[in-house]
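Look over this one:
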Amino acid sequence: MNEQPEPSCSDDDLLADQGLRRSLRRTVMLVALLNLGYFFVEGAVALAIGSVSLFADSVDFFEDFAVNSLIALALGWSLHRRAVAGKVMAGIIMLPALAAIWQAVTKFSDPHPPEVLSLVLTAGGAVVVNIACTWLLARWRSHGGSMTTAAFLAARNDVIANLAIIAMAGVTAATHSGWPDIVLGLFIVALNLTAAREVWEVAESESLAARALAGEDIDDD
């Protein structure tokens, strides 16, 4: 018989505490609302100035809203159900990547530069929102498995993307070209694909732990 991994129940023990569960739920709902609000702000500006990178980042805010809302619903679920939710989140994280690809392709034929000042101000506001969300989620990163991992990674990656947008705005002002905006949009795609892979791997680990708890044999490969 193949050896079975000994699953850790520390996360389950922590989240079994009703007070801590309520605290986590309040945190993720606050993060969800912050992201939903700035999704509308950044999306409106992105469409107005024709920015690929800002549009991709605005969809990131909606992705974060969806992920954190799902966490609030899934608290208290079994390891198996949490693993399934984690895989769903990995798919959600890929949505901004698809949106950025679509926007970039449509702009290939006319790579006009976005308006720089609006780009910088909007991306700066996004940095503030995402740093606040990352700080709120940091203490929960190691608890709740793939669900809170998904939320933390999404917020962390958004901060990186926001700072890159601000730097790209300077390049755009210097070159008067829309290509830096397109290239950065594709960079944001890469960030989201990486986060999706990491969340999927955590969810797979939870799935194995759930099978071990159920007494199933776990293959070594």
